[in-house]
């Protein structure tokens, strides 16, 4: 089955299938985050202010990192920098920009008495689940969404690519679902322990997964491109943070019954 990257046209406007998919992912993720906040007795009213910042920040950050990593091409064609709809977004830039945008837009409306680290802990499983859904509804449906050529039984056809390709978005989705399950288990077992540990665990595992995806299925040559190097650095920093948090707080401080995920 070959993905259909363009859903339909509205005059000069092209509506991409993966764009609709990513919008659906954002809505589902926001609702899940709201549910998790309310289950923990945290006011979720500030999410409305943060939503716009998250979307704008994610797009700007994802595009900025992509442009910087392909600077020579965009220096020669600077007018293409703003053509986001043609593709070219960085997952690292989207993550950093989305978090930064959400923090800026919600800095005055975030719940009093709830630390940023606590909010990031609540958000970590949401990020993992959203990434899993977004891989299927996003890159799986875009032009050139596959990885290396393959003759294996699991190979799929992708628009803009010849022959069967490694279905990287589907593999990524599976890895992110596994990370989500690990986070839920860790959240229950670490209840009342170091604030920030769940988010750090997500970064540590996601960094390793991102490196593996790039090294095994995407990068040419396999090593060492910028994504691989940054993935390892991110993961290493996150593991160091986990070790520091574990050393800093050794005795659990019970916060009451832990809510369902």
Give structural notes.
By secondary structure, the chain is mainly α. It contains eight helices and two strands. It has helices at 17-39, 47-69, 71-76, 91-105, 116-137, 168-189, 197-218, 226-248, and strands spanning 6-10, 13-16. A two-stranded antiparallel sheet has the order 1-2. Helix 2 (47-69) packs antiparallel against helix 4 (91-105). It is globular. The model is unreliable at 251-256 (pLDDT under 50).
Low-confidence stretches: 251-256
Quick one: overall form? globular
Overall average residue pLDDT: 81
Please state the structural category.
Answer: mainly alpha
Q: What is the β-strand count?
A: 2
The portion of residues forming beta strands comes to under 5%
What is the N-to-C succession of helices and strands? Answer: EEHHHHHHHH
- Main β-sheet, spatial strand arrangement: 1-2
Rg over alpha carbons: 19 Å
What's the number of helices? 8
User: Helicity level, as a percent range?
Assistant: 55-70%
Let me know the largest β-sheet.
Answer: 2 strands, antiparallel
Alpha-carbon distance between the termini? Answer: 35 Å
């Amino acid at each position: 089955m070959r993905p259909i990257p363009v859903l339909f046209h509205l005059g000069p406007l092209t509506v991409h299938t993966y764009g609709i998919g990513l919008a659906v992912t954002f809505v589902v993720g926001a609702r899940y985050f709201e549910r998790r906040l309310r289950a923990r007795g945290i006011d979720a009213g500030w999410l409305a202010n943060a939503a716009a910042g998250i979307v704008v920040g994610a797009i700007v950050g994802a595009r900025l990192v992509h442009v910087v990593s392909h600077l020579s091409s965009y220096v020669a064609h600077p007018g293409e920098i703003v053509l986001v709809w043609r593709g070219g977004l960085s997952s690292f830039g989207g993550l950093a920009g989305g978090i930064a945008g959400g923090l800026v837009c919600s800095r005055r409306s975030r719940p009093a008495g709830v630390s940023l680290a606590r909010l990031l802990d609540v958000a970590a499983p949401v990020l993992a689940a959203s990434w899993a859904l977004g891989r299927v509804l996003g890159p799986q449906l875009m032009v050139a969404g596959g990885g290396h050529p393959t003759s294996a039984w699991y190979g799929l056809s992708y628009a803009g690519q010849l022959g069967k390709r490694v279905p990287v978005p589907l593999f990524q989705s599976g890895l992110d679902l596994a990370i989500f399950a690990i986070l839920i288990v860790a959240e229950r077992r670490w209840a009342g322990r170091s604030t920030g540990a769940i988010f750090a665990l997500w970064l540590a595992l996601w960094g390793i997964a991102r490196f593996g995806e790039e090294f095994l299925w995407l990068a040419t040559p396999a090593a060492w491109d910028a994504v691989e190097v940054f993935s390892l650095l991110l993961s290493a920093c996150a593991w160091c943070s986990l070790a520091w948090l574990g050393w800093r707080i050794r005795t659990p401080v019970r916060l009451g019954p832990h809510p369902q995920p």
